[in-house]
Design goal:
Blueprint: H1 12-21, H2 29-50, H3 67-79, H4 84-105, H5 109-118, H6 141-153, E1 166-169, E2 183-188, E3 191-195
Length: 201
Amino acid sequence: MSDTTSVAGVTRDDVEQYINDLPWVDATDEQKTLVAGNIRAFYAWLDEKQSEKPVEPSAELPDTMPPDLVVAMTLWGEARGECSAGKAAVASVIYNRANRVATHHGIPFIVAASKACLQPSQFSCWNDGKFSQAEPDYQSQAWVDCAELAKSVFGSDYSPTTSATHYFAISMRTTPWWASSMEFLGAIGSQNFYRDQNWRG
């Protein structure tokens, strides 16, 4: 990555400022080093990809993405066609899960957010270990909404709009097996939302 202009006008200084501004509360030095290194590697990968240089396959693993980008991509994959309330509800599920993962595993929320999104068989857009949906349309209002929501999830004043931990599309012909053991909270947009008090991630 150059010191001046990189992908979409992002400079090395921009990346370092982004890292410094992340909510590092309760993060250990080891965790900070890991997350910061992953973020630098991700932007370096973007820089190489834009320049059409050879890229190591492992660099494309989603766990090298900045946490708010993982959340934004998850929102895009799961809820880009939803109304504002529907997108906010899915963002709340991510937040609620991340909180529980952070508590259960004793890790900072910033680490738990990515972990919650990327766990196997949780969010369908990551089911095969990489993002399986169409690449975001970065000029669309839907992407802007997803990106802004993702950033808000990490804010100190964020408040989820639902206490749900799970959801599924109303259009599904068969109710998922797990729904019968959870509390149904209602439908928002095109999704049915549920809460599992015992889910820990």
